[in-house]
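sorry to bug you again but im stuck and you know this stuff better than me. theres a chain ive been looking at and ive put its sequence and its fold in token form underneath. id like you to explain what the token line says about the fold, in plain words if possible. anything you notice is useful, everything is just below.
___
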Amino acid sequence: MNLIHASTLRIGLAATVLCLILCGILYNENRLAREGIPATLSVEGFDPRDILSGNYVELSFFSEQNIAPKCYGETYLGLKRERGKALVIGDFPSPEAVRKAGLIGTIGSCQFDKQDEKANPPYKVRVMLPISRFYANAETALALEKALQDPQTQAIAEISLGSDGKARLRALIVNGKRYPA
């Protein structure tokens, strides 16, 4: 076998192995999203255009709820599911602390102004999750930007809370129209 043929064979084999690894990663992410605990959060969005990153809507999550959460700036979010909606109980220093409290945990944190606690419920709790971008084609991203800037728009994110502690975006629902992730 000549040197050129052997090099071509090694390159082809390396490319095949890398493709199989990528397929395995994608399969695992889809499996974790399917098997995760489904929940919803309300959404606000802004600025879908970024020349280097493609077309997307930057999402900001929040929960309107009757209980005031305990937000300290920690790295794990403790959630409770009520009627399919994610309610923020607070943030915790570790996944073990979330489990000990009997809550669903995910990487993230919350913000809640203590002054708001003196107001009447429902409280608006800002939720920071590592899933902040919803990618779409240019036309859809611009339409979503326009819709999400309208205060009358009802937008909900369907998320999946995986067993690995990560939240994954399943879909974005804007004024009743579902946009799968």
Observations:
- Residues 48 and 83 are 31 Å apart (CA to CA).
- The chain has a mean pLDDT of 84.
- The longest strand covers residues 54-65.
- Residues 3-35 form the longest helix (33 residues).
